[in-house]
Design a protein that fits this description.
CATH class of the largest domain: Alpha Beta
Radius of gyration: 21 Å
Strand content: 15-25%
Structural class: alpha/beta
CATH topology of the largest domain: TIM Barrel
Order of helices and strands: EEEEEHHEHEEHEEHEHHEHEHHEHHEHEE
Number of strands: 17
Bound molecules: guanine, fe (iii) ion
Strand order of the largest sheet: 3-2-1-4-15-16-17
CATH superfamily of the largest domain: Metal-dependent hydrolases
Amino acid sequence: MSDFVCHGDIMYSETVEKLKVCEDSYLVVQDGFVEGIYETLPEKFQGMELKDYGRGLIIPAFSDLHIHASQFVQRGVGMDKLLFDWLNDYTFPQEARFASMDYAKNVYDQVVTELLRQGTFHASLFTTIHYDASDYLFHALADKGMYAYVGKVNMDMNSPEYLCETTEESLKQTERFLAEHQGKGTVQPILTPRFAPTCSEPLMKGLGELAAKYHCGLQTHLVESLAEVKWTLELFPGYGSDAEIYERNGLLEHGPSIFAHYIFPSQADLDIVRKAGSVTVHCPDATTNITAGIMPAKALSEKEIPIAMGCDIGGGQHAAVYRQVARAVQLSKLKEFYEPEGNGRVTFAQAFHMATKAGGSVFDRVGSLEKGYRFNALVLDGLEDAGFTLSPEERAERFCYGGDDRNIIGRFIDGKEIVLPE
Ligand code: GUN
Ligand code: FE
């Protein structure tokens, strides 16, 4: 693997609250990892290939911990509905089409290209209940060297007949998915019970046994809407909270647990997630579109609950997770305005951390540009107006608010430059 040096302005999250900025600096890449960042290039590196980006801004590639690859083609459709109607009227019929491999290949190839285009190189993805289509997405992501978790979805109750498995078949196909895909590199399988209302207790118990047998993590939706919370507790009367269903069935012990939305956590949900070291996922667009709630992100981060970011296509309407950075700040202001007690504003630095380092934490050394991290990075340009300069933080902020993929002029995974498919 070739080693090289990038010159430009460099920015990454050091902590939840703090951005590290190295202006006019040199980042040395060795064997695909960041060797170090220097104001003046040390003599021993001076013979290396130099990629000079001038005032280009070098940042970590984005991490999106909640995306339904299977909902890509319905983004921006049915957005005037709330969760259950949106699922029944649009999402379930659309997901049923993944029984066809022609349909699945067409959609999943577009998803992979779009993630690369938008600079999301680390992602946790839902597919559908269908094994073959899920297998296809797994390999499509792996072929591009992306870092990902892929979950075949489980649904054995409260689902339309055309998108419902028996408990036995759901467990059998899930075990096959784990057995066939584990240990294959940068993409890993993950257990994906859709959400508690569509998964019976015997299914949850069986998935817990698979988690132990295959040392596997979990992704699901948790406390996403008030209607969902109420229904879940009616369906699982022996449990005191949504998170307890996953805890008591052994789903939080063997890998990362990733909980999308986490808008209405009870004290028990908070305690369980903190104890298990789970990661929650803020999906501001989806929250606005279909679930009618705002994650209390500032309050949660003060309680030391880790928060990553998700575009949640197709609840969210766009794959660019950097737009969610802006939306997280905007929504936190609305939340504080309408419910000042206990809430506060999320800063740009915190939201950027969610979409980079926090999301990257469920993978191996991605999401930052500190020494020892993989050089999974983007180079941004074209964010200043003629005659007006902006600081690196301001350029990153402008990108998240109003930029698009045309501002991404360089993409690297493991130190290799990515060329987008035509
Ligand atoms: N809850 C159950 N299924 C879904 C889904 O597909 N998207 C979202 N946002 N929430 C869900
Ligand atoms: Fe979702």
